Amino acid sequence: MSVDVDKAARPPQDAPPPLPEPIKAVPVRHYGRWIAALLVIAVLALLVRAFATGNVNWDAIPDYLFNSDILRGLRNTLLITVLSMVIGVVLGVILAVMRQSKNPVTSTVAWFYIWFFRGTPVYVQLFLWFNLGLVFQYIDVMPIYKDEWSDFMTPFLCALLGLGLNEAAYMAEICRAGLTAVDEGQTEAAHALGMSHGKTLRRIVVPQAMRVIVPPTGNEVINMLKTSSLVIAVQYYDLLQSAQNVGRDSGVVVEMLILAAVWYLVATSVLSVGQYYLERHYARGSSRQLPLTPLQKAKAKLSGGSNHPAGGAA
């Protein structure tokens, strides 16, 4: 009996085709990244070595970290920052509404205010407030208050007005940008329901504008904290002034400046955390799923659970 060898060697017609060999992906080598990383590490190592071997008394920094004068200067810095931002935010909202008013007088006054305070340095404005006694010898608010300008314009009040009124000009533009970001149809719909202009702003426009207003406002708060160091020009006792005084009395001038920088970094870090959660709060109306917070990410990694927080949907 003969067998057809060619027919036996042929595969059946319904056999699946042979699978292709898996592709061996070879990652691209980025030698430039490694070189750049090594250069950055080398520069950082040189900087650390320079500061470590420099003529700096590092032990003085923790010794004076909680010094009573330093803490008093830090308290005054935080106080002037908060009060100046309150003035800036309140007056900024008023100026933003004035800018959008159809009254040419109020819109022109608001424009001139913003133009003047944004166009002159804060340092110059502080000196102007401090020396306005050349123009106004007395302040007379009959029958409430009457005194000489030099006694009325204390370093605290000068710093408060100089920082707060300057900040109002920037907050006015931030608030105006937030108000104009809200679609005009929202205002038209509110007016069609019989809402007044003021009620429309409070109930409809401002809550939606906060999502645009909050991020730059948080940056302004952090910037105000650092700008408050300029009040040393009008003899207000802030963190920088206290650090200079302690450094001059103890003979560790540079060390106290580094200590002041440490406290500024601590304060700005705390404010940055607050800004993050405030932005997250006002983002609920625009995001279906809020991103995880750092604490939620850490809990998710430890528990091995879902990457989405409970109730994260807006």
What are the defining features of this structure?
flat; two-stranded antiparallel sheet; 314 residues; mainly alpha; 13 helices
Describe this structure in words.
It is a single chain. The chain is mainly alpha-helical and 314 residues long. The protein contains 13 helices and two strands; from the N terminus they run ααααααββααααααα. Strands 1-2 form a two-stranded antiparallel sheet. A hairpin with a 3-residue loop joins β1 (138-141) and β2 (145-148). α4 runs antiparallel to α5 (104-119), α4 (68-99) packs antiparallel against α11 and α11 packs antiparallel against α12.
What's this entry about, in short?
It is built from 13 helices and 2 strands; from the N terminus they run ααααααββααααααα. It has 314 residues and is mainly α.
Q: Largest sheet, described in full?
A: 2 strands, antiparallel
One letter per element, helices H and strands E, the order comes to: HHHHHHEEHHHHHHH
CA radius of gyration is 32 Å
Judged by helices, strands and strand pairing, the structural class is: mainly alpha
Helices, by number, come to 13
Strand content: under 5%
Shape: flat
Taking the alpha carbons of the first and last residues, their distance comes to 81 Å
* Total DSSP E strands: 2
Helix content: 55-70%
pLDDT below 50 for ≥5 consecutive residues: which ranges? 309-314
